[in-house]
Amino acid sequence: MTKPHGAFSLLDVFPEKEVVKALKADGFVKQHVSDDEAFKKARTVEALMESLEQGDDCVGFNSSGTESVKRSVAFHHVEGDKVAVRISFGYAAEMCRGNMYVVGVLLPIPASLKPALERARTRQEGFLMKDAKSVKAPSIQFDWEGQAPDKP
Predict the structure, then answer these.
(1) CA 128 – CA 42 distance, rounded (Å)
(2) Does pTM top 0.85 for this prediction?
(3) Which residues in the chain belong to E strands, given as ranges?
(4) For 78-81, which contacts have Cβ atoms below 8 Å and span 24 or more sequence positions?
(5) Under 8 Å CB-to-CB from 149, ≥6 apart: which residues?
(6) Where are the beta strands (DSSP E) in 26-142?
(7) In sequence order, which residues have a C-beta less than 8 Å from that of residue 38 and are 6 or more positions away?
(8) What's the CA dihedral at 52, 57, 58, 62 to 10 degrees?
(9) Could you tell me if 70 and 11 are in contact, meaning their C-beta atoms sit under 8 angstroms apart?
(10) pLDDT band at 72, cuts 50/70/90?
(11) Contact indicator for 20, 44 with CB cutoff of 8 Å
């Protein structure tokens, strides 16, 4: 998207009810439901995040989860009249530092986004995430190995 850093929000592009519906259908999200009734009733991303727990994997379904849904996204590929969106959630506890969790959802493409996605799909302007390797987009990978303990 051609917006200044921090200016993009998924909820400015897609109706929030569609984003909530797609997240509710995701199997990984469903594994983290802490309040079934609140999950069913959730109509906003914020309410949905409040109905989830971090679980054993410390996924960041907390107050930062709402920001992740808005801003930590990538358009992966187009399937008919829908676009696959990847949402990256960080860690919720310091002991899980560095872990990222990606949830993939399919959202109906709004008319306003169709031209930009078509240009990205055909690589006239930008690209979709599925094409990142073939367009030689830069990537970052972090590996960490703890220091071996000193031998006495």
Answers:
(1) 30
(2) no
(3) 73-79, 82-89, 101-108
(4) 78/109, 78/117, 78/121, 78/128, 79/106, 81/108, 81/109
(5) none
(6) 73-79, 82-89, 101-108
(7) 47, 50, 51
(8) -20
(9) yes
(10) confident
(11) yes
